[in-house]
Amino acid sequence: MTAEPAPRCESSETLVARLAQAGRAAQRQLARLDSPAKARALHAAAAALRAAEAAVLAANARDLAAGEVAGLSAAMLDRLKLDSARLAGIADAVDQVADLADPAGDIIDSSTRPNGMVLSRVRVPIGLIGIIYESRPNVTADAAALCLRSGNAVLLRGGSEAVRSNRAIHSALVEGLESEGIPAAAVQLMPTQDRAAVGAMLTAAGLIDMIVPRGGKSLVARIQADARVPVLAHLDGICHTYIHATADPDTAGRIALNAKMRRTGICGAMETLLLDAQFPASQAVVAGLLDAGCALRGDARACALDSRIVPAADTDWDTEYLDAILAVAVVDGLEEALGHIARHSSHHTDAIVTEDTDVAERFLAEVDSAIVMHNASTQFADGGEFGLGAEIGIATGRLHARGPVALEGLTTYKWQVRGQGQIRP
User: Fold this and answer.
1) Closest by alpha carbon to 191, among 215, 217, 156?
2) Does domain 12-232+404-416 have CATH number 3.40.605.10?
3) At CA 379, angle to CA 349 and CA 260, rounded to 5?
4) pLDDT tens digits, the chain, 425 residues: what are they?
5) Which of 176, 186, 189 minimizes the C-alpha distance to 153?
6) Does domain 239-383 have CATH number 3.30.70.100?
């Protein structure tokens, strides 16, 4: 079942309010379901998605044809493309989310007061979550599954490049969910691609409880600037690796190469390498990166390590390249490294390579990022690698969830107080 088109006379604000109110009502129904019921519904949704393969792939073919006419890049077209294997992977991911532990209802802690009242903090869904995303149609299924498993309703707004694919995937998911008694309004897809509808979502305070953007920097920046609803997101992934004087040379070289070159286009890719002036193998580390095809932009001392390194501009220390380009600086010890990171980090992921545990512990304590690592590649900044099963995104704010946001990050808590007639003196 696809969302009905909005009436022509309906404003974006009225449309979002109508959908949000329906979603909030559906979320109250979800709150009454136990964990097995939600799991059965998601397994049914995955089965329905597999059964709808022909319809989904046909819709995706139309999106691809329109994208080619519109001049989408090869990379964008690849992100958009679905085939039987990719669609099976999307359905498998829904099944996997269904089998994850449900955080809703977990008792975080409890205590008994001297007057006999029993206080408990209980994990509960956030409510109605708005997801605004770009060309990847798999986000339609991933976001729906994560929100529903944690007891939240969701309002999805995908990019115009994947509009037909998103509608076909959404239709199949809702068919499966409804077969298990889940109201269709628990997972809604915005029925219009009008940009004004995004603005209406961002200002729907009191109706939408949280916005999660999934996409490029320009999308996230706009959402963070315009939202009147809490936003869970990160803007840049300016990730640092600091190689301390005591680092093992082989370990340092392997980590630096992997942190940058494994996949250059992900938010956990290293963008700045800091080399301690006392580290004895800096030349070997930078040579390994250069030989692997990475362009290096360095400060004066870094440029002296290898003639292939070009001088860095001031902007390089604040650039998320998402490419085989890396900024490199030589620093005089831990203090200078910490200062550089404090000035330039986007608070996503920062790492230290060292054999000195005291230095490592200080780095872990003082670097104010969502993820801080010791002797590991920043490419591990991923919900699946953290054992969370899936993630809806990475958050770099200081409130609520930080780092990979999975099921627990889609919940909050409330206090439950059980008394026996106590009154306050």
Assistant:
1) 156
2) yes
3) 95
4) 444 455 557 899 999 999 999 999 999 999 999 999 999 999 999 999 999 999 999 999 999 999 999 999 887 899 899 999 999 999 999 999 999 999 999 999 999 999 999 999 999 999 999 999 988 899 999 999 999 999 999 999 999 999 999 999 999 999 999 999 999 999 999 999 999 999 999 999 999 999 999 888 889 999 999 999 999 988 889 999 999 999 999 999 999 999 999 999 899 999 999 999 999 999 999 999 999 999 999 999 999 999 999 999 999 999 999 999 999 999 999 999 999 999 999 999 999 999 999 999 999 999 999 999 999 999 999 988 998 877 888 999 887 889 999 999 999 999 999 999 999 99
5) 186
6) no
